[in-house]
Amino acid sequence: MYRILLISLILFTSFFAYSQQSTGLIPIEKFNSDDLGVQPHCFDFAQDSRDAIYVGNKDGLLVYTGVWRRFLTNNATEIRALAIGPNGDIFIGNQKGFGYFTPNDTGIFVYYPLDTLLPKEQQEKVNNTQLVLCKDSAVYFVSGKYLYKYYNKQLNIIDLEGEVSMLSIVNDRLLIIIKSKGLFEIIDNKLTPLFTSDKYFYKKDSTRIFKIASFQGFGENKIIYLTSNPLKKELRILDLKTGENSVFRTQLDSIIYRVKIKSFININNSILALRLENKGIIIIDKDGKFIRKIDKSSGLQSDVIESIFVDKSNILWVAHKTGISRVDIFSNYEYLPIEKLGIKNTIEAIKLFNDTLFFAVQNQLSYLAASTYDQKRTLTLEEIDDLSNPKILPIDSKLTRGQGCYGLLNFDLNNYRSLLIITNNNIVEKTESGKTRIVFSESGRKLFQDKKNPNRVWVSIYPKGLASIYYNNGEWINEGKIENTSYNIFDINSDKDNNIWMGAYGLLKLETPVFINHKITNPNIITFDTTNGLSANDTYIVHSDNGNVFFASADGLYEYNTKTNHFTKSNYYGNWIKNHFSLRFYKDKFGKTWTVSYPDDKSKIYIKSFTPNSEGTFFMNTEFSKQIKAQKFFAICPYKGRLLAGGTFSIVYLKNSVDTNSSNKVNVFINIIEKTNKKTLFGGTYTNSSGNIVSSQSKASVPILDYKDHNLVFKFSGISNKVSSNLEYRWWLEGYDNDWEVWNKKTEVRFTNLHEGEYTFWVQTRDIYGNESSKLSYSFTIIPPWNRTIWAYISYFILFIAFVWGAIQYSTRKLKLIITQATAEIQKQKTDIETKNEEIVSSIRYAQRIQEAVIPNKIQMGKAFPDHFVLWKPRDIVSGDYYWMMEKDGKLILAAADCTGHGVPGAFMSIMGISFLNEIAHNPKVQSAAAALDMLRQNVITSLNQEGSKTNTKDGMDMSICVYDFDNMIMEFAGAYNPMYMIRDGELSTIKADRMPIGIHERDNNSFTNIKFNMHKGDVFYILSDGYIDQFGGEKGKKFMTKRFKKLLLEIYTKPMADQKEILWQTLLSWRGDIEQLDDIIVIGVRV
Asked: What is the CATH number for 1026?
């Protein structure tokens, strides 16, 4: 694992230009031998189109894609120089020759020597290849006194007749400096001398140029170089058009003779990085102004540097004998540990007062010692070292000396300004003149200047309470403590109505305070807790923005609703801050709000900014993020276009204008895919059909794997253009997984026992700021094992058909014999069953004739009731529903009954019922319909041996019995469950029956109810069983129901009785449709 450090760099530099000396810390990654996996001595760098980094190393070629891998040359020698060819191949120069690395079919880099293309006598002259450069489609190698040009797979040799000090491309011109010969341009494989009259290039032994940089800040067609005259070393600029040669003045002019500049490079067309001999790196800007020094004391691997390189993201790579340093030279933040500044405790507050930065530290009030070196024309080495070690010094005041400081406030009142300081025992004021005095004789936690009356300052007293002090004509007035504020108050702010809000373990509100003679009158303190929607046991930070007040806790950001007196989560800044704890807020002069925030698990620290947009919402940007649990920032302060944040371990400086999210770039790489036997399926580098290195897999390179290779291991990694980005990964095997894996730190995933099919492995990375890389994929196909191929299935099918045919033939012969025997037996059984069935049906038919014989016939019914109908429809041949009629004492008795069951069992019950009714009708003791039912019930219970209400035998019958006294026009009715319907003058009435049967029942000791009433001519009476109204049918298959039956009766009661019968039957047939008749049916209608 590589170790992440922060090196001594930039302190107070602007984002727009590196124009001030800098001594802060910016991120750097250090890679030693353990990280590299090889000897740490490195020489040169290159970067391809995928943003992979290549390093020439003592043990071969190193490739960095977030992890390090090594590839060897055929002669296993160190690689001193390298460059990326036009198709992405890596051309290298080593101690014994030169050649190139290109990926094979599986994406693994393989080395091919090129010096073997030379004649044998020329091969012997190739030894240490120090320079490699690519221009257009050609590659140039410098070895000894020869320049080799590789083009169209051929090598051309150019004899330089001298040692080369530099080969470079400037404005698309290939320039070369040959020691003791001068500056040349290579045109058509020939050396063309430039500026032969220039004394700096052609006076022998007077000049040695180490590096040429195409530096845009010097204009077009200019180069910068260093003279090597021991008495007068200087940087100079040469105009390639005019030949003008001038001195490049810098703040290093006085020390150039003491430091040997080995090389320098252009970074982002705005600064130069000068590689020194055994003294690290010095950075200067395009005006020659010193920016910073980078050396071992500030975090590099070593002061001895082999080479420096800047990649496409302006990351500075440094090669050492002891490893590699990766420097985020344009980091949006800078960092200084407090111990480097001479601070031993937590920074509680930072304020800029009188152009001086003051720090409230738990053990002292301190200030940053100002530097004036940026005004000097030149700097000494000692001054450069001082700039690299800024110090924060204690204030020499008896009121603050030895006192802990816990808070600062810039008191600003018209033309009067001062700094208020919270110490252990007092509130101390420091004026612009430097004088100090005590303004409040107690310590505090927080100071807040009243927005409505800025003369007043509110003081959160330590340990508990709230007070106010008032500035008047040069004096401070103690206005005293506020009643009912005995709480631990951590923060104070006010809303647009000048209510004073206090953050504690909960919230307090002092409603618009009124003072008379510097004494508050009738202060009204309101407390808020969980009953008002706040989370329990949380401390609250109070923030005000455009008159809106917000309350931050560990549970998120809240806002207050005055109408409901309730707090709810606030969407004012968006969802992120709504659900995270924001410890500090600061709103700058541009309207941007800055916060120090933490996720739920406190595993990271964020400094985020919220910029208002035209839509009334905010654009959130992560300006700083670090994977650290213990760090906390308690102080935020603007300073020279930057934001300073101080806390437990460090001070962080943020460039106020940087849009970190848009500038960050993250790349993901699939480094290796291993098959079941640990053989490599894919080595990490894609190529297209032309052999060029590309960033994604082509369709032609999708492999087809045998089924035995169904266990695969994917190893991947990522690179961010911001150092120390703490990358996370997610992946998805399309064709296997349902969705993406959640983000995590794993860089390897294993899939086992994959089935045959087509798969695509997707992987993506993101940095600590939430910037996501593009999705990278690798597709492959696993063919099925032979036993699951199409030919296997065809074979299986043919074998199955043959087996089935043979089985059928065998079974057919055997079955024919069985069928012949069984057919004869079945025919005999069929004949027996048919005979018995005919006998049973014949018996039931005879029972039908018996049942029909005991019920009243049509003549009897017609004589007794001239205007009537009987709709009697047994479900089977015989019926459990029956009707009975008898004349007694000049009265007609009519009954309709529904026996338990239907068919033969029901018919038996009906015969028994008719028999009992005939017997009861002749009994002189029975004088009413109800008495008849009582006696019938007793006979049924006795005959069926029913005992108790819980007997298993529930057989019996439901019945309606009517007694017609036509002489006196009186109707007498009694019913067992079944009612009687009467229609008189168009109105239907229901004569209800008792809710108990004729049979055993829990109420069988109760007598049936006898109902008498007068009949009128024209009355129509209907009695029935439940078979009609319980019949299922209709569109939804439901019962006919009583309500529908009553409605039908009202529609037909005026019609002749015979028509009513037919209508009732046809209606029921239409209702039930294809549904069978479910029960026996009996409906009797009589018109008086």
From this structure: 3.60.40.10
Q: At 309, which amino acid appears?
A: F
Q: Compute the distance between CA of residue 1035 and CA of residue 381 in angstroms, rounded to an integer.
A: 103
Q: Of 570, 594, 611, which marks where a domain is finished?
A: 570
The boundaries of the domain holding residue 920 are 856-1087
Fill in the amino acid letter for 63: V
From 159, 176, 201, the end of a domain falls on 159
Nearest to 478, CA basis, from 461, 463, 495: 461
155 CB neighbour count, 10 Å cutoff: 18
Residue range 653-666, pLDDT digits in tens: 787 544 444 467 89
Using the structure block, give the residue that is written with the tokens 């009897």.
Answer: 860
- The answer to whether 608 and 595 have CB atoms below 8 angstroms apart is yes
Please state, in angstroms and rounded to a whole number, the distance separating the CA atoms of residues 450 and 438: 20
Tell me the two tokens of residue 187: 């045109």
Q: CA 783 to CA 706: how far, in whole Å?
A: 6
Residue-wise pLDDT for 897-910, tens only, equals 999 877 888 888 88
Q: In what order do the strands lie in the sheet with 146-151?
A: 129-135, 138-143, 146-151, 154-159
Is 503 within 8 Å of 540 (Cβ atoms)?
A: yes
Q: Is the pLDDT of residue 777 over 90?
A: yes
Confidence (pTM): 0.70
Per DSSP, what are the bridge partners of residue 148?
Answer: 141, 157
Beta strands in 835-931 (DSSP E): 868-873, 881-888, 891-899
Query: What residue type is 687 in one-letter code?
Result: T
Instruction: Based on the fold, state whether residues 155 and 54 are members of the same structural domain.
Output: yes
**pLDDT tens column, 589-617:** 888 899 998 877 777 788 888 999 888 88
Please compute, for residue 619, the number of CA atoms within 13 A of its CA located in the half-sphere on the CB side: 13
Q: What is the DSSP string of 809-845?
A: HHHHHHHHHHHHHHHHHHHHHHHHHHHHHHHHHHHHH
| Dihedral, 600, 601, 602, 603 alpha carbons, nearest 10 | -130
Task: With beta carbons less than 8 A apart as the criterion, state whether 457 and 468 touch.
Answer: yes
Does residue 770 belong to any structural domain of this protein? yes
The per-residue pLDDT for 307 is 94
Q: What are phi and psi of 357, to 5 degrees?
A: -85, 125
Residues 881 and 984 in one domain: yes
* Confidence class for position 734, pLDDT limits 50, 70, 90: very high
Give the CATH number of the domain where residue 145 resides.
2.130.10.10
How far is residue 1028's CA from residue 1034's CA, in Å, rounded to a whole number?
Answer: 14
Q: How many domains does the chain have?
A: 4
Residues 954 and 868 in one domain: yes
In this structure, the strands spanning 316-320 and 305-310 are: antiparallel
Q: Which residues pair with 6 in a beta bridge?
A: 27
The C-alpha atoms of residue 392 and residue 344 are separated, in whole angstroms, by 11
Identify the CA nearest to 197 among candidates 162, 238, 230, 234: 238
Cβ proximity of 731 and 766 under 8 Å: no
CA angle 932/934/936 to nearest 5° reads 65
Q: Are residues 552 and 671 in the same domain?
A: no
